[in-house]
Structure formats: C-alpha cells, structure tokens
Specification:
four-stranded antiparallel beta sheet; five-stranded antiparallel beta sheet; 427 residues; mainly beta; globular; 3 helices; 38% strand; single chain; 26 strands
Length: 427
C-alpha cells in the first residue's frame, strides 16, 4: 500500500511554523527580571534579649537534672508543624545553683545532681514549641546517664551543624529532617578540639524526631594532612532544587580557613553519590577536586564555623573576623557578599562586636571570653531583621582550667542573640 502524498505547505502555514520556531528558540529570560544583585553588609544591629533570656530560663530550670544547662554550636531548623529543633554540640546536662559561686562571685553556677563534675555530652537537641517555648531536651542512651542524641562513633564524636527538612526521597510527600554532622576523632597538640574525619548525614523521622540512620557523605580520612580536610555543613542554603552546602578546611598555622562549596539535589542529602563539589569551573563528583570559593589569605578568610543567608538575589556570609589579628578576631564578626554561592565573594565588610557577659572584657583574649560560631536563623526573621546567634566561651588564663570558669558562670556557655538589619555594602 502506497503512502499518501504529503500536502503542500502553504505560505500561511510556513509563516506560522517559522513563528513557532522563533518562540521555541527564545531564551528562558522572558519572565520579568528580579531585583539586581548588589553588595550587602550589616547596616544596624541590636541585642535580642528575648531569645537570650529564653535559653537562660530553660537552662536554669532544675525541674529535671538530665537536660540542657548550656551548650555551643547553636543551629536551628523549623519543622513542618511550626516547632523548632535547636541543635547543640558539646552540652552540659546538670543542675544550676544560685549565686554566689564557689569563688564568691555573683554568678549562677553548675554542678552535677549530687555534686562533683557536671555531665558533658558531645551533642544534644532542644525542642521549641510553635509558640516559642523551649520544652524538652533530646538526648540518647539509656539508664541513669543520658548520652549524646547522635551517638558517639568508635574513638570519636559527632557535632551537629546545619539541618533541613526535605522529602524522604525526591518528589515524595513524606518529609524527614536531615542533619549534617561533623565526625571528629581525639587529637593532641594543635588538634585538642579533635581531628576532622568526615561529614555525615543523620535522618530524623517526623513528627517524632526518631534517629533513623547516620550515613557517610564526604569521607576525608584519605587526606594525609588533617589541616586540609574539609568538613561540610557550616552553612547550607536551599535554592530551588538544590542544597548548597558550604564547609571549610582546618589549618592550624593560620586563624583563617578557606571556604568550599558542594551542592546536592533536594531529597538526596543522605546519598553520598549525589554530592557534587565546585572545582572553580565545574561541579565534580570527587571531593578531592574541590577548590576554595573564598580563599584565606591576608585579611580574608572564614572561621571553621560560619553562616550564609540569602538577601534577595545576594548571598551574605557572616564569620568571625579572622583577618583582624590579635584579640579582635575572637570578639568580633564580619561579613562577605556574593551574587552566587560559587563567588566571587567580596569583603570582608565592616566589623560587629557583640555584647559579652558582664566582666568578660579583657585586654588579652587569653584572659577573656571568645565570641564564635555566628549563625543566622532565617526562620525567625522579623520586620526585615535577621536573628543571629553567637556562642561565648573562655580561653585561659594560663594555669586555670577553663571548665572551672565555665561551670562557675553558666552565662559563659549559652547562646546569645542579635537582631541584624542588612543594607548596602558601601565601597
């Protein structure tokens, strides 16, 4: 059977086909343009007494003696039902005593339930109700002594960093919480805070927050120099279909670290094979090929803990002022901005010196109180003002154990909060 002959194409039809071809060839820029990316920096700030006081009240409550009285590494994630999960690294679980402390100073102080050394665990979580009330501490283990919420691996510990709510699998309606963890092992000398090992991903069920699994995402044990190992999760920002996850190396010869970037499709954070790393030009499957997006040197660099937030089309990074030198780098924060997570990052811009506990000011950083781990909590943005937390800790003086100072004043190991408004970065 012969095929029917094609009808001739009329001029009108040819014109219509050509017009359609032009429409299909048009770029995706047809929608309206958004606001232009411009430099951003801190325009103003003020103390947020409400959030600071909320953690003080919760920590001072002795209704239970196996819950949170202080911690650092403050991160948060808003849950679908309106609750907020706050994640902490090293955490004290114990009892708070009224002043004066054993040194005769007017501070609330910390002891174990029956005296002795307070209980320290490597991590915990605190659950806040949708109304903003801190309700309970999540820990692990069993028996008389509570354990860390994310259990310690053999010869090491886990510190939780950024967390997000995402589909259990791509496109699924069921949601879970993914928590990025830093796996570290004991060290000595310059590695008193542990040797970096790997970035892991924990999966928590919703709404029960049951720990389901912990999987390896970026193993760095094959990197011989611990200072060149990159742990990811200092910051994580969801942008469209992607999680952009930033991390840093940990050189001990310099106060500043370099920042690195990975991206993962939403719903696949727990899949090691889905992670890709920016090499300066392309996304690579091998983490070893990652190149810094913000390279340390001179006044530039980030602390091992930093935070990134979107302000319209602009990306803003807050970090300790590592390039300022001397005591200022342990008491002040600064910022960078970029039009894309890959950079280029511009800055540092400005210096913010937040309040420290009364009496903490000292001419020598080793004798005073360090400010560190700035974290933006975008779920608490109000009237255009960001909520920023920072941690405080003691450094020295030489010969005086820091634990005795921390336990002698509970205000030295609890998060403090600021309200920050961004504005033009200036020249």
């Amino acid at each position: 059977m012969s095929r029917p002959m094609a009808r001739p194409v009329t001029a009108a039809l040819l014109t219509l086909l050509m017009a359609a071809a032009v429409v299909w060839a048009l770029p995706d820029a047809a929608p309206e343009r958004g606001p232009a990316c411009t430099g951003r920096a801190v325009a103003s700030w003020s103390a947020d007494a409400a959030h600071t006081a909320a953690f003080s009240r919760y920590g001072d409550d002795n209704t239970r003696v196996d819950d949170w009285t202080g911690g650092d590494g403050t991160h948060s994630v808003r849950l679908p039902d309106g609750r907020t999960l706050w994640l902490f690294s090293d955490t004290f679980l114990d009892r708070v005593q009224p002043p004066p402390n054993p040194q005769g100073l007017p501070h609330r102080w910390r002891t174990a339930d029956h005296g002795g050394t307070p209980l320290l665990r490597h991590n915990s979580a605190v659950l806040m109700s949708a109304s903003g009330r801190l309700e309970r501490t999540l820990t692990g283990g069993s028996g008389a002594a509570a354990g860390p919420f994310f259990p310690d691996p053999p010869r090491g510990w886990r510190w939780p960093v950024r967390a997000s709510v995402e589909p259990r699998t791509p496109g699924a309606r069921e949601k879970v919480v993914r928590v990025l963890l830093w796996n570290r092992t004991p060290g000595s000398g310059p590695w008193v805070f542990g040797v970096p090992r790997s970035t892991e991903v924990a999966t928590l069920s919703l709404p029960g927050l049951r720990l389901e699994s912990i999987t390896d995402a970026v193993d760095q044990t094959s990197v011989p120099d611990p200072g060149r190992r990159v742990l990811y999760g200092a910051a994580s920002v969801r942008d469209g279909a992607w999680h952009y996850v930033l991390g840093s190396d940990d050189p001990q010869a310099s106060p500043a670290s370099s920042a690195y970037l990975a991206r993962v499709p939403a719903g696949r954070l727990a899949e090691r094979e889905s992670w890709r790393f920016w090499d300066g030009t392309h996304w690579q499957q091998r983490a070893a090929r990652a190149a810094p997006v913000l390279r340390a040197g001179g006044r530039r660099g980030v602390g091992s803990s930093f935070t990134v937030v979107r302000d319209g089309p602009t990306w803003v990074l807050f970090t300790m002022d590592t390039g300022s030198g001397g005591a200022a780098g342990l008491t002040s924060l600064t910022s960078y901005w970029s039009c894309a997570p890959q950079g280029p990052w511009h800055g540092p811009r400005g210096r913010l010196t937040p309040p420290r506990p009364s009496g903490a000011d000292s001419p020598h950083a080793a004798d005073g109180v360090a400010v560190y781990n700035p974290q933006i909590h975008p779920e608490f943005t109000a009237s255009g003002r960001l909520l920023l937390s920072y941690d405080v800790n003691v450094l020295g003086p030489p010969g005086v154990p820091t634990d005795s100072r921390l336990n002698g004043d509970v205000g030295l190991y609890r998060p403090r909060f600021l309200r920050v408004r961004l504005g033009p970065a200036g020249p």
